[in-house]
Structure formats: structure tokens, C-alpha cells
Amino acid sequence: MTWARRIVIVFLLVAFAALIWPIYPLFGNERPLILGMPQSLFYVAFWLVASFLVMLALYLFEERS
Amino acid sequence: MTSGAWLVVLAVTVGYLLASLVIGLLSSRKTSGGTEGYVAGDRGLGFISLYFIMGASIFSAFAFLGGPGWAYSRGAASFYILAYAAVGLTPWYFLAPKISRLGRARGYVTQAELFADRFQSKGLSAVLAIISILGFLPYLTLQIKGAGYVFSIVSEGRIPVWAGALLAYAVVLIYVFKSGVMGVAWTNTMQGVFMLILAWTLGLYLPAKLYGGVGPMFDQLANQAPELLRAPGLAADGSRWSWGGYSSAVAISTLGFSMWPHYFMRIYTAKNERTLKQMVVFYPTFGIFLIPILFIGFCGVIRFPGVEPADTILPTILTSLDLPPVVIGLFCAGALAASMSTGDALLHASGSVLVRDLYRVLIRPDIDDAQQTRLIRILVVVIGALAYYFAVVSDLSLVLMLLLSYGFVAQIFPVFLATFFWRRASRPGVLAGLIAGCAVTAIWNLVPELQWRDIHPGLWGLAAHMLTLVSVSLATKPIPASHAESFLGTS
To answer: What is the ipTM, given to two decimal places?
Structure first.
């Protein structure tokens, strides 16, 4: 497996862990409001966007090489 | 609404149904008549079709009516619907290209065909087919119910649930019967675009109209109902939900998501490997698109307290706002789109799985291609009728079936791992593991005393599955290396 894929798989495992107990409780409060959303919702949205961007980067990298 | 207004609403909704029908029927011209065309679209689908087919899977009737309902009554608990979209489909990035290649070379069009070939097992094919149907039926039934409710709400009870469900699903049956997967693909693309526009318009317009914006809305909520916004939200009875319940729901959905047999079959429809990878990369964007749908539910908390059942919060807000009938009609069409774009894929997959993985494997291995397609079509109608019966006639509780089905489907994940990564996995090991996993899931669902910290029964099933798979495999003869070799690894 390439190093790029290894890094992405580690990221995906981190993202999965970040969205459940015991990490999500640390970021699951009603405040502060970020971009109008409560922290608990913004945090989930952040991981959605991060996951999209990381997978996009892997795709573009693999297409180029 | 005045009597004239509801006719406008109905006209918009029926117009939308007609458009779906026309597009669904036109799409049949694009493929060959055989099973490869009917089930796998001649393996020629591009990025846009695949993207919306998979997107429709998350934008189901559950998301459109259930999503706001969850946000309204259970608050942050509803975020789990978003959470599993973050990584749920990513296993495909690494393996779907290979599955697609194997499918092309060996003629697979269903999920069970791949696994049954890897483990040389007819039994595995049959067990997977049964799991698939058990998983599909409650979901299909819910979608049909959802469509019926839409018509009933639009017409203020003038059109009963049974008639509305019949009308919407007659359209679905016609285009699935005629056009197979291409009917699903084309209509889902149209329905997908339509739902997205509607979700964002309503999701941003309603908070603006009622509270002056999304930020001010959440500000008021954080003051008045902070426990609602604090993860993991509330349980169904209004008490605080447990972290065990929330986390295990996310985990089982993430693991099970990429294993649903009707999504898995889409891998074979892709034109090429690049298309598949692009689809996986862009999948989390559908999770982002879902966020405004939740805003709609949060809108109701302060301004519309006490709405029962919670799933009717969206129609309740809409009908109380004095909106033009055309807008309400468009909303109803959007809810129908959500129901139909999920229901059509389930119907199509049910027929395909029953014929390819059960009938052909166990009863008539010599069935020819044209007969298969004909039989799939007949079964699509039979399954549609059965689900319709459950939806409008029977009083059977769907909740337990739904809980069971996600738990069962997640049991396919270890089979998937063993197929590609474990040389030593044996036929008895895989079969025993799958059966043990499903049995434990069912027992944990049926015996509430076994519950511990609200952990999803499917996770206990997965533990039993892994243990059985490993121990039985090590004690029995492995699959010959010459056969297993072509499946192992990601390339």
C-alpha cells in the first residue's frame, strides 16, 4: 500500500473515533455558536467537510501519479 | 387552505409524478434487454447518475420527514444521521474498483455473487439473499407509508393514505418494471436535484422567517433548551440519550452503510474505476446537504411546541405559514421524491437478489438470461404488493424490523473483510460467523434484559460473528489458495 493511502486510512480511523464517545463529548456542547451552529453540530459538519477534502486530495494525488 | 388551494397543491404533486414517470420510461431506451442491462445498466453509469443514486439513499423519506422530526423532538441525537456519512462509504474507495473489475470479468451483478464465488458456497448466497430481503422489506414499507402520508396531508385528508401510496408506487412500479436500474438512475438524478434545491430553500428560509436567521434561532435555543443542543441529545422518551446508544448507533451505521446490498450492487453499474472513486470522494457532501433539513426541525421547537407525532413538524410549519399553494405543492413533491427515490432502488434490488442469489442458485441453475429478467420483473411487482400490504393494511410494528435490519446488514462487514484480507477464512467459518452474528443480533433485540448501556444489538452480533468466523475457520479446511488468490488484496 502506498504511503498516501496509509495516511488517509489513519485519518479515516481518527475521524470515525472523533465522532463517537469518548472524543465527541469534549466538543458536543450547545455553545459557542460557530457559523451560526451550536458547537455540537458544527463539529460534526467539520468532520464531514474534512473527510470530503482528504478523500479529494487522495483522489487528485493518485490521478496525477 | 381553501378548496381551490389544495387543488393547486395536488396538481403540482401529480405533475411531478408524471414527470418522474416520463423520465423513468424514457431511460429504458439506453440499455440492452438482458439482466446485465436490467440489473447493472450494462456497467455504463457515469459520475452524475451514481452520485445521485447514492445520494438518494440518504435522502430517503426518513431523512425528509424523520430528520426534522428527530431534530424537533430529540435535538442533537439527529446528528448521528450526518455522522455516518463522513466515513461510511470510504471502504469502497479502496475496494470498489477491484469489485467492479471482478464483476466485469465474472459476470456478477449482485453482492452475494461475489461472496459466494469467493467462498464457493451456495449456502452463503442463500443466507445473504434472506438477510437482504429482511433488510429491504421494512425500509420499503416505510417509504410507501411516507408517500401515502404526503398525499393525505396535501389534500387535508381528502385522499386517504392507501390511495396516495397506491398512486405514487404505481408510478414507481411502472418505471422500475420497464426500465430497471436505468429508470432508478434517471429518476433519482431528477429527484435528487429537486430535493437539494428544496431542502436548502426551506432550511434557510424558515429560520430566517421565524427567527431572523439560523444563528439567532440557535442562540434562542441554546438559552431556552440547552440540553436539546448538547450531544448526544434526547432519547425517544425525552430523557437524556446515553453515549453508548449514540456511539453504537453511529458505529453500526458506519459499518453497515457500505454493505447494504442495494447500494453494493451499484458498484457493478459504474462505467469505470475513476467514476467509482469520484462517487466515494463526493459522498460526504450529501451529509452536508442534509444539515438544512435539520434546521427545519429546530425551527419548530420554540414556535410550535407539542406537535405530535414529531414527524409531522415540517408539514405543520408549512401549512401554518400561509405560503402560496404552489410552494406547498413543491414541498409535497420533494417528500414524494425522497420516498420514491429510495423505494425504487429497494424494489429493483429485491427482485434481482431473489432471482440471482436464491432462485438461480438453489432451484434453477440453468435459467437463461431472458427468463431471469422476466422473473425479476414479476418479483418486483410481487414485492411491491407485499410491502404495500404491510404499509397500509397490516398493523405490524416496523420499529423492531428496522432495528433488526440494520443490525443484520452490518453482519455482512466481516464477510467483506474476510473476502479480501483473510486468506485463512474457510467456507464453514464464514457461514457460521454470519449465522451466529445474525442470531445474536436478533436475541439481543428480542430480550431487553440483555441490554448494557444501550449498546446496539448489532455490535454484540459483530463480536459473536468475528469470534465464530475466526475459530471455525482455523478449525476447518481453507479455500484452495489458487482460488482465493485472485480475491485477496486491494489491487
So the answer is: 0.95
